[in-house]
Amino acid sequence: MIERSLILALLLMITAALNGCKKGETQTPVVLRAKENDKVTCPNCKVISSATELSALTLVPGDTIILKSGTWDNQRLILKGVGTLDKPIVLKAEKAGDVNLKGASSIAIDGQWLVVDGLSFNNGNLAVSKLNVVDFSVGSRNCRITNTSIVDYNPIDQTVDYRWISINGKNNRIDHCYLKGKAHQGPTMVIWGTNSVLAHRIDHNYFGERPDLGNNGGETIRVGTSDYYLNEAQVLIEENIFEHCNGETEIISNKMSKNTIRNNLFFESRGTLCLRHGNSSEVYGNYIIGNNVSNAGGIRTIGEGHLIYNNYLQGIATTGQTSAIAILDGVPNSEPSGYFQVKNARIVGNTIVNCVQAFDVGAGKGGNNRTVPPADCIIANNLILSKSGIAVAYTDQPQNFFYEGNIAFGMGSGQTLALPAGIQQTDPKMELIDGFNTYFPAANSPATGGFKGSYTFFQSNNIGANALDALHKSLLKANGIGPLWMTNLGTVLIVKN
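User: That's the sequence. What structure does it adopt?
Assistant: Structure tokens below.
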């Protein structure tokens, strides 16, 4: 009898978990995203066909609102309410990808524990309203947009400035979305700064093509502004793809402190991962593939205490501020909006393959009154393999740099300056990984077992980045990135060796 009761209870639990739309039942991120071509069936849900119907609802924790499939033209959706961790309020498409928001349609997310799932914004124009396509309010907390696309939501006048996703509040998440084709002024995604921790998470999104804007303000992601550069935002940007994001020099523009940018793929994007303002951010596990495309850059470093480690960069054909790893000169007594001196950076265990210039130390000297060289940095256990490039260029002479455990090989006549002690010139004996066209040390490589020093943030046996693992194989193939209902994302992500 007890066993029968236990079995019955277990069946009821499974049924409740699968029927994630019933009012009052616990909702988890797993059941919030419909499978490809699934249509939501939910007898107890609130089904709507307009923004007016949404505004008329009084929402309580556990409610699910279903948007009927079809074209939604000029609809200003406002999702307002207070859910809980166990009972979020969910707004989702009847069928993921089949709720097509056009014209001046947009959505505001204003409350706590709110989830938006499965929408498709395409070919809209918010020039008249100057609203953002997706707006997280100042009071938003623990809210989420997932499984959603925004494509070609452009005004005719490209100088009109609005964001496709604008993020205020705290602890919000944007995941498994697809954003492509922003051709007008303003970053694609903005995280607004405050004087307190933000703790937003941006993950598993596919940022598709963004054309060159021709001026400043074309970032794909901007975190904060210079006014808040000393505030610890603790934003996490991870496992996203940036493909042909050419809006401007900064693909990601990090302008606050203590953020983490990890395990992302930058593919043929004509710009840089830029630590523009702020201190003590971590950049690791990223793959930056330039494929020798002009102006496709690497990691651009400004400020103090940054940790840059375990990244893989290949085919970066540019020099100076857009070289594989650029360590910039600063401005004396810089204003918040200027360029602070690079100090106490730790650049450890990166692999740099077939790049024209692996490091530029003092990059940008002279421009914008930059005359203060980098100081007190460590460059250790990096692996540089080149066909004819430069391992280290000194645009300015650094102060108190320490090198250990680095290997550089294959430089051409451009490496006119002697390399410092701590950079060994020897063949690292790299192997090409079939199917991925990336290089890692062979078993008999001097990089294998050659790691020197002790670094609390990254410890390895080998020089260079970690071997290609399951996470990064999936990333390079775009598996699990973007909305579930979109197929064939990542077919252009072909790495050239």
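The CA atoms of residues 181 and 351 lie 31 Å apart.
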